[in-house]
Specification:
This protein is mainly α. The chain has helices spanning 2-26, 32-56. Helix 1 runs antiparallel to helix 2. The longest helix has 25 residues, at 2-26.
Length: 65
């Protein structure tokens, strides 16, 4: 599960970076930035739900080393 969380965090940061790149290249004339930010929000909500379900079912324990 740790690798799934790390992969989702990398995807979230990558989506944010691509949105910034689209904003600079397209100068706000394209919907590609909006789609990239929508993916980022969707991935963030998905990660939050994954963590909540993991805590509920005992897959993740707070402060586990």
């Amino acid at each position: 599960m740790r690798y799934v969380v790390i992969a989702m965090l990398i995807l979230i940061v990558g989506s944010l970076g691509s949105a910034a790149l689209f904003m600079l290249r397209d100068r706000g004339d394209s919907s590609r930035m909006v789609k990239a930010l929508a993916w980022r929000v969707g991935l963030s909500v998905g990660l939050f739900l994954l963590l909540m379900v993991g805590f509920y079912f005992g897959l993740f324990k707070p402060h586990q080393l």
